[in-house]
């Protein structure tokens, strides 16, 4: 098994990020960027319900231990988001991929390493996996058009200037 070449010990993703990448046909960016991605059993359940399939072999399922903390966070966030945040809290040097603003800000505020789908696309450009800034801009548009919540202002701010 190849070691994750990214500077984090573990990369965990919430369901919404997986869904957003699938909708724009860039799900495999996760494998290309991080080699393996972890999800919790709660996220696996959401994934299977949403996609009617098993995740690929490069996605590992690992459980967060603190069920009380998951239940506490689940009052404000979804089950998958709560379990991903608790898993990241329990595992030092974890990158959490989460798109929903409220749990994303909570994770950031408590000191977790947080990224969203937009950040993943930008990393893919930086690592030359996405070959052009024009392609990235098209993917940002597609992300917005397929239901990813992106305001017009954010869309304008994230797009790469093209010569």
Task: Describe the structure in your own words.
With 163 residues, this protein is mostly helical. It has one domain (10-127): Rossmann fold. It has helices at residues 15-23, 29-34, 41-51, 67-73, 79-90, 101-109, 117-126, 133-145, 152-158, and strands spanning 10-13, 37-39, 59-61, 94-97, 113-115. The strands form 2 sheets. The chain has a 3-stranded parallel beta sheet with strand order 1-4-5. A two-stranded parallel sheet has the order 2-3. The longest helix is centred in the last third of the chain and has 13 residues, at 133-145. Mean pLDDT is 92; it is low at 1-5.
Describe the protein's topology:
Blueprint: E1 10-13, H1 15-23, H2 29-34, E2 37-39, H3 41-51, E3 59-61, H4 67-73, H5 79-90, E4 94-97, H6 101-109, E5 113-115, H7 117-126, H8 133-145, H9 152-158
Helix pairs in contact: 3-5, 4-5, 7-8
Keywords:
5 strands, single chain, 163 residues, Rossmann fold, disordered N terminus, mainly alpha, 9 helices, two-stranded parallel ribbon
Helical content (DSSP H or I, runs of 4+) = 40-55%
Give a count of the beta strands, DSSP E runs of length 2 or more.
Answer: 5
Widest beta sheet: strand line-up: 1-4-5
Quaternary assembly: single chain
Largest sheet: 3 strands, parallel
The whole-number mean of residue pLDDT values reads 92
Give the count of helical stretches.
9
Shape assignment: globular
Q: Look at the structure and give the CATH class.
A: Alpha Beta
Low-confidence parts, pLDDT < 50 over ≥5 residues?
1-5
**β-strand amount:** 5-15%
CATH topology: Rossmann fold
At CATH's second level, what is the architecture? 3-Layer(aba) Sandwich
């Amino acid at each position: 098994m190849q070691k994750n070449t990214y500077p984090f010990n573990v990369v965990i993703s919430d369901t919404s990020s997986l869904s957003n990448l699938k909708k724009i046909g860039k799900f495999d960016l996760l494998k290309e960027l991080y080699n393996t991605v972890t999800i919790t059993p709660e996220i696996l359940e959401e994934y299977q319900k949403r996609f009617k399939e098993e995740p690929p072999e490069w996605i590992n399922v690992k459980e967060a231990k603190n069920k009380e903390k998951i239940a506490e966070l689940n009052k404000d966030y979804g089950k998958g988001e709560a379990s991903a945040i608790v898993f990241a809290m329990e595992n030092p040097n974890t990158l959490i991929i989460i798109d929903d603003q409220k749990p994303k800000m909570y994770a950031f505020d408590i000191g977790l390493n947080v990224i969203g789908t937009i950040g993943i696309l930008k990393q893919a450009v930086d690592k030359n996996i996405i070959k052009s800034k024009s392609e990235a801009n098209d993917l940002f548009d597609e992300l917005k058009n397929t239901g990813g919540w992106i305001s017009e202002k954010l869309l304008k701010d994230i797009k790469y200037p093209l010569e």
